[in-house]
Amino acid sequence: MSSSSSSSSLTCGRLATWTVIAVVLQFLGLLLFVLGFFPVKPALSGVSGPESYRDPMSSYGEDQEQINHFSQNQLRSLYTDMSKISPAFDRLILMVVDGLPAEFVLGRDDQPPTKAMMEAMPYTQSLLSHGKAIGYHAKAAPPTVTMPRLKAMVSGAIGGFLDVAFNFNSQAFRDDNLLGQLYRIGWKMVMLGDETWIKLFPRLFTRHDGVSSFYVKDTIEVDHNVSRHLGAELTATDWDLLILHYLGLDHVGHTGGRSSILMIPKLKEMDEVIQKIHTSLDLSQDSSNGRTLLMVVSDHGMTENGNHGGSSYEETDSLALFVGIGSKLPDYASATRKTASQVDVAPTLALLFGVPIPKNNIGVLMTEAFDSLADDQKLRALELNSWQLLRLLQAQLPALSCGSYPCDHYDGAQCSGVKVSIEQKFCCLFSKATTLHSSWTSQKYNTSRSNNNEDVRSTVAAYNEFLRASSEWLSRRATDKPPELLAPGIATMAVSCAMFLFILFCLCKEVYLKENQGLLDCSYKWHLDEVYTLVVVVIFVFSMGSSSMVEEEQYIWHFLTSTLYLIFLRKTFQSSSPGAVPSLGNVIKGLKSSNHCRIYSIIFVLICGRILRGWHQGGVNWVHLPDISKWLEQTDSPTIKSFQIVSLLFVIGSSSFTLYLLEPKRRIFLVIQVSLFLSGFLLFMHIMEFQDAIFGQSNYSSTLIAQCIYATIITTVIVTVLQAPWVRPVSVGDHQVNNESQLVNSVSKDVEIRSLLPAVRYSLHLIGLTYTVCWCLLQLLLQQPVNAMPVLLLFFQILGSMFHFSVCETHSKHWVEVAALYFLGMAGHFGLGNSNTLATIDVAGAFIGISSHSTLLSGVLMFIITLASPMLFLLSLVFYISTKDASYLLLSKDGDLGHLLQMMIGFPCLVPLALNSVMLTAFTVVLFAMRNHLFVWSVFSPKYLYVLATAVCVYVGVFIVAVTGIYTCLVFFLRERMLRSKAKTKLKS
């Protein structure tokens, strides 16, 4: 009675309904939390105008209507008159070298660049050494991807963290920015290069020629397309701003890393462009078009592997090089050892060219750029920058009113004392600077020159102190996170997590009762592997509260997963008869071969895991240490190719052997074999012919072959899924249904379901194997060549685990086995070189087989590459279902299609959903708790993006498993019903 009531309490319909409700609640909670935690950064409305040249502490009226009717020339003259600073330049050439680390040009840690780098850019180095240019290490804020970095340079504002997602589909930039200010005073603009500029600033350019920034295999034409216009544009007189955005160096980094053989030639190419511009224009003297400033900048740097997106020094070390502004002390050190923030570009250029500073700017003037100005104009520039930041502070701190906090003495203790509020501190620093400025203005003609210079330096230092303090506070200030979204979001996710766990508990209880039906002692006994699986989840949850653990998460998964399989090994040894010593000889002789093979299979999985652990060092702190992948990259190309070919042959050979064990007797096996061999042959061609051409321009033949591989793999999967359930004959008992009368006489539902189980398992085995093999072949195409062997090791881990779990003797609980596969998938994720920083995302592979840029297709391929291992082990759950005999779980009283589905796909679907829900909810709580942490945007937020991507991966994988199981069972039941109906019809006739 107890078992019957239990089974009736959790039907397949209820299981599916409550699972869908839990998924919907989790998605709703995620949506609320993400919208609350990652909102679009709030910005002050409107644009800066004449009011930016007035003291924000004084009251004034503004006839905005009259200003709106000003012509462009009138507005330009008004800005010049009100600013009291004559524009230092008349035209600007902004040369953006995408991905160029500042240390390539300026060196690092007060050391000059390497000899190779200096020889690669001799003309640029000569400009620096002769005092004709000054360079800055302009620190970029994460995420270090192109679109938000361009926004930062032209607006001086740090955008929201989710700009990393919008980077692949840029929208028009509506906030106040430098280009918009220049456009209002009549500047004509030309843009050549990255089409991101066109998307951000539509209708601003007089002419443009954009190229896609995401097709990273193109390292040649993407720059030639810019340089081919350069000669004509340098002689043209119809532009005031010329933007040249070169993408080739960034693409070289993505495809070959910093040490790519193409890096030095690309740097030489950029140096030649700088030389051509500098020699074509008289940058140091007046010309018919006025003085022209060449500014060479980079949006971000790159890691050793050539990627970017994170917050490491290598990624944030961007360049800001002023060519045409000399250093007061024309020596190399003073020209190259300056530091700034990337947002400092916006206010500097705004005041150099006579337009208001953008309203949301948090940048600080690069004072060396104003050394050629008179002292009063230099102090005026600092004053205007201070007024703009003070307005921004007043918007963030409504209580800020400097008239309420008089400062009679300006010692450091008063301005930074522990008892001083943030409002008092800013007012004190601002008042100090303005008072010194006023004092200098009133006394500048009455003091000696030496005292005058000293007063100027003191005033400049006071302004810089206020500016830096304000800028740092504004940059660190967390974006407003409305609790009305965050609290309901977390609560909804917690409810969803509790639902998943409760559903899984009910399913475990029901299965346990069925397993122990008829036994007197039905008390549940926890085993070591079950307890440890729960401990793994607890350890992981608590470890995510540490930034160091997040950065080095790979160690957690490798260690915990290996320990779980060691527990499986111990359990298998304990199941052996006393005195039995496993040996290869015993296996060959057939003595206890089943148990011994299970032992060897676990050892095999552990060995594969250990090799995976050493393949990539991974993480953040020890990524520089040697590993197998670095050793391979230092060898010649044939060595890496040999690893790729060996991996390919083993994947094809292992899959063929596994198919052979199914005793194939139908055409579908021949179709699958031919498809796999065809895919393998095409992959072999791609490896041998086109692997070395990855750094060059897109090759039509390689793209065509990759597309053929895609088509073959997709066709193989679709045909297998649709046809596999129709291959195996339906049987009743031990006899196939060739005798209609026998079918009609079979009336027991239990017999009916038990008769279908072998056929269902047979079909799922075929489908699951096809899923797994085709996914591995796809990864061998898309992954970096050095990752071919790790893909093979992951495939071997699946085969070894499936063999171990297929033996019913002393089997572990189903939820433990599915959890073990989930853990293997997470460990494999880091074994492929991934980490919790955005810099390890493989962008280059996302364009294999794509002839032109497509945001959707590239995004899908990037997702497939990044989540390769978790998805592989989720797809292998179809294979896992076929290894388990669920017939002992079926009761004659309630054996039906729904119950069969519940027993077969319940654990493979619920366990990943429950584990993902626990980890997702836990890290959401961690992220909320760390919202004011120093590393919230550099460590915890990137990790959260990976958590969200993993959740999507789990949803997709579970959906595929569920649909495959439902479709297969439905086909067999439909076939059985059709045959039964046909037999009855014949008997009646």
TrEMBL record:
Instruction: State which pathway it belongs to.
Output: Glycolipid biosynthesis; glycosylphosphatidylinositol-anchor biosynthesis
Keyword hit for Membrane:
yes
**GO MF:** CP2 mannose-ethanolamine phosphotransferase activity
Q: Which residues form the GPI ethanolamine phosphate transferase 2 C-terminal domain?
A: 530-963
Q: What is this protein called?
A: GPI ethanolamine phosphate transferase 2 C-terminal domain-containing protein
In Pfam terms, one family for this protein is PIGO_PIGG
Write out the similarity annotation.
Answer: Belongs to the PIGG/PIGN/PIGO family. PIGG subfamily.
Give the bilayer topology: Multi-pass membrane protein
- Organism equals Papaver nudicaule
Give the matching SUPFAM superfamilies: Alkaline phosphatase-like
**Regions that span the bilayer:** 12-38, 485-508, 529-549, 599-616, 642-662, 669-688, 700-722, 762-782, 788-807, 814-832, 860-882, 903-929, 944-974
A single BP term in Gene Ontology: GPI anchor biosynthetic process
Top-level lineage group: Eukaryota
Listed A to Z, the keywords are:
Endoplasmic reticulum, Glycoprotein, GPI-anchor biosynthesis, Membrane, Transferase, Transmembrane, Transmembrane helix
